[in-house]
Structure formats: structure tokens, C-alpha cells
Amino acid sequence: MGDEEDMNAENINQDRQDRFKVAPEDSISTADGEEADQEDSYPARVNIVIEKPGKGALAVETVAQDGMIVIDNVYFYPDASYALAKAADKAHERQDLYVGPPFGNLDEDLQVMFEKYLDERGINTSLALFVPDYIDMKEQREYLRWLSNVKSFVEG
Hints:
Number of helices: 5
Radius of gyration: 26 Å
Number of strands: 3
């Protein structure tokens, strides 16, 4: 009777497999028929400051992912030193300035104009593809330096 139960269990499992449908996006494969070994792109924050002497600066917060630069916010500072502020007092003063509305609240045509403005300055697909690769390279370099420092510490 044990053999009969095993056969029934196998039949039940086979029946269940036939009932499940696999969506096309769940079975991605390469041209060779092997499963694709692609890593999902991760978002990388890219903060851009464009200065014009005597005219202030635009600070643009973006995210680079999947070969695209997506604008999150655009801020205008009449004094470029606010856009690059690292000191606490300058950063605190910057909080009191009106730097513009949220990017998503802008007219769609104006949003497109900002995207074209950045594209004309080389902030485009090439940069969006470069940034994650650069981050990976820099992370690897930092990791190797850390390993070397730990090794020197332990051996010394």
C-alpha cells in the first residue's frame, strides 16, 4: 500500500504543476535559452549643482536608475554658496529660503524643459549608466583598502 500512496502523491503533485500558469516576465531567458543573469539596477542619488557667476545656482536632486535620470527636485539659490553649503550656519540659513515648489507640482512642459536643460549639459542616459558602475568600482576600491588596513593592523 505504501507504493500506491507514493504514486498518488506523485500524481497529485503533477496535477498541481499543470494548474499553475507562469507569467512571461517570470520566465526570462537569453537567446541561448539559459536564464538571464542580470542584476536589477539600483537607484543612485545624484545631486547636481549648476552655477553661473553672479546669477546664483540651481541644485537638482536626481536619481539614476535603469539608464534614466529622474528629477526629484530643483532648487534655485540666488547665492551659489547656499547650494554648496557644508557649514552648519550656512545650511541653517538655507532652510529659511524659498527655493521653489516640489518638482512634481510644476507644469509638465516645465518639467520636460528641465529634463532637456540637463540633457544638454551631459546629464543623460550615459551618466545614468556610468554612475552605478562607478559606485561599484569605488566600493570595491574602498573594500580592498579596508582589507589591507585590517591585515596590517592584525599582523602588526
